[in-house]
Amino acid sequence: MSYGFGIVGLGLIADFHAQAIEAMNNGKVVACLSRSKEKADAFAQKFGCTGYSSMEDFLAHPGLNIVTVCTPSGSHLESSLKIIEGGKHLIVEKPLEVTLDRCDKIIRAAKNKGTRLATVFPSRFHEVAGVIKKALAEGRFGRVVLGSAYVKWYRTQEYYDNGGWHGTKALDGGGALMNQSIHAIDLLLWLMGPVVSVQAYTGTLGHQRIEVEDLAVAALEFENGALGVIEGSTAVYPGFLKKIEICGTKGSAVLEEADLKYWSFSEEKEEDEAIRKKYAARTDSGGGAADPAAISFKPHQWQFEEFTASLDSAQLSMAEGNEGRKAVE
After folding, report:
1. Which of 73, 127, 166, 282 has the fewest C-beta atoms under 10 angstroms from its C-beta?
2. Mean pLDDT of all residues in 100-127
C-alpha cells in the first residue's frame, strides 16, 4: 500500500523527513504545515506538496495517512492530540515529549482513538543494531556486565543563541541528555533492558544563557544486574561520534555511530569475521556530532518503511507507543 505523508513543523529536521519519505517505494509527501505561510509555501515548492498554515485544513488534505511531527519537543503534545483527533497515524520526532505525563497523554489518546503512534529513534533501525540485539538474545555475550553510552558532542554558543527554543526547559525539556544523547540512551535501553537505579551529575560548563545542562554523567544499574555509564555533552570540541559499548563475560561489542568497532567472543562463530568486515565502515555522515545538519536521512527512511510495513501487517512497530517514553523516563 502507498501512504501519503504530511509534515508538521518545518525546521531543520523536516527536510530529512521529507528526503526519507521521498526515498521510500511506498511513501510520498503530500502536505506540510507551518504557522508561517511563507515557510509552508517554500517547503511545499521544494518537495512538491501542498503547504498549509491551518491544522484543520492540513488534516483535511486528500490522501493524507501519516503525519510526522517536527515541532519543538515541548510542543509535541498539542500537535499530536490534534493529529490523533483527526484520525491520522503519527510518527513523532524524539523525544516523544519532555515529561512522562505529556508522553502518556499522547500514548493514551492514540490508543483510545485507534491510531498508530511511533517515536523517531532511527538508531534502532541500523542493521548492525539488530545484529547486536540478536547476539544478546542468543546469549553470546555470556553474563552481560556493562552497558554504556557516550555522546561527546559539540554545539556552538550560536546554536543556542540563534535556535529560539534550544536550551530552554519549556521546549527543549533538557539539554545534552534530552536532546542530543537521547538516541544513544534509547539504543542502550533497547539493547540492555530497563534501568532500576540512576545516580548522576550534571553541569552547564561550556555555554551561557541556557536553562539546561550541557554536560551529564550518570551511573546506571540495569534490571538484569549489569552496570553502565552514560556520558552526554554538547561542550566537547570537536565533537565525536556517539558510541555504545556492551560487555559480557563471553563477549563484547563496541558500536560507533553505524560502525562496529569491536566484535569479539570467546566462542567465535563462522560468521563473525564477515560481520566485522560488513559493518566496519558504514557511517556516511558526521553523525550530528558537531553539526546537527551533518546526518543521513537513510535511518529515518528505514524507520518510516518499517512503520508502514507494520501498518500493512497489523503488527507493532519497533518504536511503537510506550517505546517512546522509555528514554524520557
Report:
1. 127
2. 98
